[in-house]
Write the structure tokens for this entry.
Amino acid sequence: MAYLINTFKRYKYHSLTRLDSPEGRRYVTPEGTPLPSVTTILDRTKDKSHLDAWVKNVGQGEADRIKNEAASVGTHMHGCLERFIKHRPLEVPTSWLAVRGYRMAMALAEKYFPNLDEVWGCEVSVYYPGKYAGSTDLAAVYRGKPSIVDFKQTNKMKQRAWIEDYFHQLAAYALAHDMVYGSDIQQGVILMAAQDGQVQEFVSVGREWEQYKQAWLARYDLFAAAHALAAPGV
């Protein structure tokens, strides 16, 4: 049977145990070491002034409603894309938020998945020994380059200047993937779908990509210093 997505088991990926607590998310490595998640580190080192101002403007109740609805749509979108990539049948949606998520997923797949030359893994757990861990949507070859790819949903389309956190996230996963698997991830790719049906592709490569790696490591060092974590050199 022919599939639209070409999957290749280039690497034997580790399965990490996820632990969620009020202190943040951690992943337990194959060696039994709990490491802070990339998303927790990003959250603890980001400027939240714009978010706080937005909540104050719309009110806590409305902010919670918008965030919960977006989270539900995003979960359905990711689930649909994962099943598509893994050649699994799609579940019948049981809510209109699920329908919206499926529509966004298919818009992304139709527009950008033809650029996937190879998929090495979907929902891949990665970790940088002694530092951090996380889970990325795709490790793949995209437009001819080894890549870390993440899917994002948004209420409205984003400008590139607004999504540096996303590139820091991808850089973290790339550094971890290269360290553990000896790969050479050459770019980070963000595939974004908005709830109005629009889609966007953001790619970082070359000098900018290297700068994002250094910026991520600087954020990790801030987090490590604040939380008295060991931060061995790279």
Remarks:
- The first strand starts at residue 17 and ends at 21.
- The chain has a mean pLDDT of 91.
- The CA atoms of residues 49 and 55 lie 10 Å apart.
- The chain has one domain: 26-226.
